Amino acid sequence: MLFRDRQDAGWQLATALRDYRQPLVLGLPRGGVPVAFEVAQALGGELDVLVVRKLGVPWQPELAMGAIASNGICILNHPLIARLRVSQERLNAIIADETRELKRRELAYRGHRPLPRITGRSVIVVDDGLATGATMQAAVEALREDAPGELVVAVPVAAADSLAEIATLADRVVCLHAPHAFMSVGQWYQTFGQTSDEEVIALLARASSASGDTAEP
User: Fold this and answer.
1) What's the first-to-final CA gap in the chain, in angstroms?
2) pLDDT tens, 109-124?
3) Are 74 and 52 spatial neighbours (Cβ–Cβ below 8 Å)?
4) Residue 15 in contact with residue 46, Cβ under 8 Å?
5) pTM for the full model?
6) Half-sphere exposure of 37 (CA within 13 A, CB side)
7) Mind listing the pLDDT tens digit for each residue in 60-88?
8) How far apart are CA 177 and CA 126, in angstroms?
9) Residue 213: is its pLDDT beyond 60?
10) Long-range contacts of the stretch 200-209 (C-beta < 8 A, 24+)
11) What DSSP designation does 214 have?
């Protein structure tokens, strides 16, 4: 095990990001938000969420064949889809289902409040780990449309091949560990329970209260 829990991972990750001051820190819900909370607190940054959804293989939902983000970005692993013979009809149904869930989560987490300003800012995107990297790829591509000053991907642990791919998309990648024998993100945590919507909402409220709502809009 590399981390006790997501809080511990966030503390360790913040140490590796200590050269940033008051960045915009975006957690990928749900599991990335507890990690991002610790990073934002340590760096004096603004915390928010960027909702992305994995497109799981129908009979193996944990295996990503793509991902979607809130501004219509859709990333597809076409070779995997072809190899597994996932029909277009089934793919379309999964995209529709995940789009509905994405919209539900956006409303639950942020109401009708828009994302903070991205353009020209240092933006750190945080998740609890990278397995296939599909959701992070969708997140990075979505954020690129708003021209951040610097786009940093920060994760405690990642599969080496996924990390290499993300490194071609972000301005900087910070990863504490990239083990060769990588089966899942959860294997590197002593405690890796599901993060609930309620926990995400509570962490966002705590971060907003701690900043006194003085963060840049």
Assistant:
1) 38
2) 988 888 899 999 999 9
3) no
4) no
5) 0.90
6) 22
7) 988 889 999 877 889 899 999 999 999 99
8) 14
9) no
10) 200/29, 200/30, 200/33, 200/49, 200/109, 201/108, 201/109, 203/33, 203/34, 203/37, 203/47, 204/33, 204/47, 204/48, 204/49, 204/109, 204/110, 206/37, 207/37, 207/40, 207/41, 207/46, 207/47, 208/47
11) -
From residue 143, give the alpha-carbon distance in Å to each of 10, 91, 139.
22, 24, 6
User: How many Å apart are CA 216 and CA 214, to the nearest integer?
Assistant: 6
Q: Which residue(s) pair with 150 in the sheet? A: 122
3-state SS of 122-162 is EEEEECCCECCCHHHHHHHHHHHCCCECEEEEEEEEECHHH
pLDDT of residue 212: 55
- What are the chain's domains? 6-51+116-210 (3.40.50.2020), 54-108 (3.30.1310)
Asked if 134 contacts 78 with a C-beta cutoff of 8 angstroms, the reply is no
Among candidate residues 217, 8, 7, the one with its CA nearest the CA of residue 113: 217
Tokens representing residue 9 in the block: 């991972």
- Both structure tokens of 114: 């828009």
Residue 23, helix vs strand vs coil:
coil
Residue bearing tokens 């913040």: 14
- The answer to whether 11 and 154 have CB atoms below 8 angstroms apart is no
Instruction: Give the C-alpha separation, 194 to 204, whole Å.
Output: 17
Is beta strand 172-177 parallel, antiparallel or unpaired with respect to 150-157? Answer: parallel
Q: Residue 205 has which token pair? A: 């409220």
